[in-house]
Specification:
Keywords: Developmental protein, DNA-binding, Nucleus, Transcription, Transcription regulation. Pfam families: ALOG_dom (PF04852). The chain has 5 helices and 5 strands, in the order βββααββααα. The protein is α+β, with helices and mostly antiparallel strands. The protein has a 3-stranded antiparallel beta sheet, with no helix packed on it. It has a two-stranded antiparallel sheet with strand order 4-5. Helix 2 (about 85-95) runs parallel beside helix 4 (about 155-170).
């Protein structure tokens, strides 16, 4: 005798229902053993919140730094991280830089637009490093770090960034000094002339 499998119950499957931007999955006629009762369940999935460009970049930078700590020899924990380790991380990033920084022996040292290529290395631009430290400093405190123990705000890191800025300014012939804003000139508004008093007008005609 052949065994015949029962036909599937079409009501036993759930079908997604899309309402606007929310997906609702309904499941009905779920039989409870021994009671014959049916129940229905509804699951509401909220759309994921979109992060800003700054928040996405900050998350990527933080993951990169944590990966650097894990690959460190010996591996470092976040609580053991200091300003010296932050400087090691910044120097490590120089190999991925795209900014040409001329050496002092280069004939193009101090030229903003070199006329020919040179073998000087590529580095991370000062502006990129400064923005990176700002994001990592905020991420450190968001992950439970104490502001007074923030390694990204250490004095050694600030000095390093200032030295990188000054050297790159000399090597590339770029000035980072802020330009003074010219004071706005006040435009003198001409007041409408009031007509002379009748007595003054009479006196003026009498003298003519």
């Amino acid at each position: 005798m052949d065994l015949v499998s029962p036909a599937p119950d079409p009501t036993a499957y759930s079908s997604p229902i899309v309402a606007g931007n929310t997906m609702i999955t309904s499941s009905a006629n779920n039989t409870i053993m021994g009671t014959g009762q049916t129940t229905s369940s509804t699951t509401v999935q909220q759309p994921p919140s979109t992060l800003s460009r700054y928040e996405n970049q900050k998350r990527r930078d933080w993951n990169t730094f944590c990966q650097y700590l894990r690959n460190h020899r010996p591996p470092l924990s976040l609580s053991m991280c200091s300003g010296a380790h932050v400087l090691e991380f910044l120097r490590y990033l120089d190999q991925f830089g795209k900014t040409k920084v001329h050496n002092q022996t280069c004939p193009f040292f101090g030229l903003p637009n070199p006329p020919a290529p040179c073998p000087c290395p590529l580095r991370q631009a000062w502006g990129s490093l400064d923005a990176l430290i700002g994001r990592l400093r905020a991420a450190y405190e968001e992950h439970g770090g104490r502001p007074e123990g923030n390694p990204f705000g250490a004095r050694a890191v600030r000095i390093y960034l200032r030295e990188v800025r000054d050297f790159q300014a000399k090597a590339r012939g770029v000035s980072y000094e802020k330009k003074r804003k010219r004071p706005k000139q006040k435009v003198a508004t001409s007041q409408p002339q009031q007509p002379p008093h009748p007595s003054e007008a009479a006196a003026a005609t009498a003298t003519e």
